[in-house]
Each structure stands twice: as structure tokens, then as C-alpha cells.
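Issue 218. Parser rejects a valid record. Input:
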Amino acid sequence: MVDPEKIASRDYLPELTFTTSRSSGPGGQHVNKLETRVTLKFKPSASYVLTEEEKAHLLLKWANLLTNEGFFVIHAEKHRTQLRNKEEVIGKFRKAIIKAFTIPKPRKATKPGKAAVRKRLENKKKLSEKKNRRKPPELD
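Output the parser choked on:
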């Protein structure tokens, strides 16, 4: 089994492409002058860091997240500086890698407890009696 933390801790920086643009985030009038929004692009199919099995796994997991050209794109515009947004986008990328390689725990089917079943049946009886009392009396 592959450890998602180990895969995420590899050096992806040479394969990541960063672009900047004007942000709609915080900064007041300052936001109209500087490009603080950072966009990260990563192409899993062209990665040298990942093995072929890992590439196939990522392409399967991220199928709905990839662009038509096969890029995984993440944006960050939360902070006022380009550097902090770049750090945030790298953190988001790392979390996305960890999430993609983490195998979810299988759900164990459980049954309701005896007390819960008894309480549900009692509530059903009470509701049934309440509705029966609303009916007009039967005339014979």
C-alpha cells in the first residue's frame, strides 16, 4: 500500500505552472493594481515524479476535475500577497494529492439498538391512537 503523505511530499515544483492574474479578493483599491491571484496548473499524464500506476489512479480520481487539455487547475486569491496565495495553492495541491490516494474506510452496516426500535414502535402506536381519536364514532 502506498502512503499518500509520501506521494504528496515529493518535489512537484518543476512540473507545476504558476500564473497570476488580478484578484477579486481582499485589498481594496490595491486589488486593481496588482496581480495577486495565483493559478496552479499540473498535468498528471506528463509527470516525471509519478509512476504509471499513480498517473492512472490520479487520472481516474480527477476525471471530472481535469480540463480538456488534461490539466488539474487550482486557484487562490484569499490573501493580499502573491506569495501567500502561492503558498496556499501549493497547500491545496498537496491536500488534493493526499485525498486522491487515501483509500476510504469501508462502511460497516449497523442495526438500530433494541431501545431505539422499541421507542420507534411506541411512537408509531401513539401517533396511530391520536389519529384514531380524530375519527368520528362509528354508528351501528
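Fixed in the parser; the record now loads. The CA atoms of residues 62 and 75 lie 16 Å apart.
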